[in-house]
Amino acid sequence: MMRWLIDTATLMLGRLRRGRRVRTTCDPVDGRVKVNLGCGLAVAPGWINVDASLNAVLANLPRALLPIAYRLSGSNRYYTREQYIGLLSGNRFVHHDLAHSLPFDDDSVDVVYSSHFVEHLFRDEAVVLMRESLRILKPGGLVRVCVPDLAYAVECYRRGQAREMLEQYFFVEDRSSFLARHKYMYDFDLLRDALEAAGFTAVERRAWREGRAPDLSLLDNRPDETLFVEAQKPAGR
């Protein structure tokens, strides 16, 4: 119940921010503006990390209050207190509801990265996110989308791993948070079609930690089960 209340409160806060049309300043790091969407705590230095979770709210608290925030966050199951405080205080987080908009100006971002987030949106919301990603990218800009591979999940089922498929890909028994539920799944064709429908070109499948996006050694995760795809905003858009 407490997890549900926290999720609801943080989502409502994100929607209020969206209603005010908040815009995030984009200061280049090493000559590029890099945005990590639906980041959780999988972050890298120099990126603007955008998320609707409680952690993105708590990250903007004074460092002295972060030990208290650690006790409130579900991340205490995966990170030590020192790790958690270091991640929140050492990186830039923006709290925003990504299902409807992105808080950036047109043509203001060089790279958009998203890992294991798009599947948590309904398909129509994911399409909006991809169109918004196209809008904020500079002409010729790059997007990298990483999602659980539906083809891999089906192969698990064929190998007799039905329970693993249901629990690890569809989270049928996860009652800790409605934000954790998967609402849609993608193979390469489905993800390529969605990106092309949004206006992206040069859609290509990539390997784990291989591609044009920076910092993949820090950002890419779960190599066996993940579909990695990169696409480009046309230079003339």
How are the secondary structure elements laid out?
Layout: H1 2-19, E1 34-37, E2 47-51, H2 54-58, H3 66-72, H4 81-89, E3 92-95, E4 109-115, H5 123-136, E5 137-148, H6 150-158, H7 162-169, H8 188-198, E6 201-206, H9 216-219, E7 226-232
Parallel strand pairs: 1-2, 1-4, 2-3, 4-5
Antiparallel strand pairs: 5-7, 6-7
Helix pairs in contact: 5-8, 6-7
What's the short story on this structure?
The protein contains nine helices and seven strands. The protein has 237 residues and is α/β, with parallel strands linked by helices. The chain has one domain: 3-Layer(aba) Sandwich (Rossmann fold), CATH 3.40.50.150.
Outline the structure in words.
This protein is an alpha/beta fold and 237 residues long. The chain has a single domain, classed as Rossmann fold (3-Layer(aba) Sandwich). 36% of the residues lie in helices and 19% in strands. It has a 7-stranded mixed β-sheet with strand order 3-2-1-4-5-7-6. Helix 5 (123-136) links the parallel strand 4 (109-115) and strand 5. The longest helix is centred in the N-terminal third of the chain and has 18 residues, at 2-19. It is globular. The model is unreliable at 1-9 (pLDDT under 50).
Structural class: alpha/beta
The largest pleated sheet is described as: 7 strands, mixed
Q: From N to C, what is the helix and strand string?
A: HEEHHHEEHEHHHEHE
**Overall 3D geometry?**
globular
CATH domain fold name: Rossmann fold
The domain tally reads 1
Beta-strand level of the residues, as a percent range?
Answer: 15-25%
Under the CATH scheme, which architecture would be assigned?
3-Layer(aba) Sandwich
Contiguous helical run count: 9
